[in-house]
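Bug report

Summary: structure tokens for DNA topoisomerase IV subunit B differ between web form and batch submission.
Environment: batch mode, default settings.
Steps: 1) Submit the sequence below via batch. 2) Compare with the web form result.

Sequence submitted:
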Amino acid sequence: MRRLCVALLLIAAPLLVAAQPLDELKLLSEHPVEGIAGGNLSGLAWCSEALWAVSDRDDDRLYRLDTSQTVWHAEAEPFVAPAPPVMPLPWGLRMSTWVAGQVRGGDLDLEGLSCDAKGNRYLVSEAHAAVLQLPPAAAPQWLNLPGGLVRQARASGMLLHVNALFEGVAVDPAGERLWLAAERENRGLLVLHKQPSSWRCTGGCVLLSEGGQESAPAQLGGEPQARDFSDLVFSQGKLFTLERLGHRICRRQSDSGEVERCWSFAAEALTEARRYDSPFGVAEALVIDKDGAWVGLDNGRRARGDGEQRPLVWRFAAPKGGWGNTR
């Protein structure tokens, strides 16, 4: 009976956390970004004393953000990626993804961005379910990921739909653990450990797989949509997920993906002036530091309520007591 009670509590814990009223994060500033050629801002990371961005429409550059003024300017750093590896995705899914890339631009569909303490940058390609490493003084290279990563993800209900593959990447400072976030239907978290010449799943790749729907905020119509992850960060020993539909940031255990605490940014994001004509939300990029969070918006060149069409980055203050508050 005791084991049954413990199991039920583990199953119910995420639902209980989600049901609690969330504290609202306070918006400190917002910054339009100029100079991103493809327009879409799909990832952010703080690397080597600067804030960097990636666009899912550009396969050949990162952007260093000049943050000295209210309007930020993106300075391109070009790179040449080698041909991506062929991961064990079904032929039909790979072809549909290829066609989508030809139509909208961005064959690699670079989504997440992360850095380790040595200055290596890591970009996740949604289209190819692969991770590109950009060393500070060497040519870009694709990480040698195991085929079991994709097979385990698909067996757990993830990576089944076009434009619903890997959406976020996070790496620990030592560059020895790598986490990936599957976007939706199912959303989930996976982890890999570095070996001398490759990356391996230790005790399985999948930490978390979640299906189902939740209601969009009332300001976006309130219709049920698939739960999602739109970015992933490792900070202060924890994982932080950006949840686009729910307009929230959640702190999770790095070894299980179990949610511990969430904070909402819906009140600030969904004012009439800041709202976009989208039923899902547009928050796609996340950086966490001790003082707050940077949230980047992939607005797809759509105008929001006040007419602003440029990509934007919001700065939120850290919650009272800090991100580690267990209350």
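Above is the batch result. After comparison, the two runs are identical; trailing whitespace caused the diff. Residues 145 and 199 are 5 Å apart (CA to CA). The chain has one domain: 22-317.
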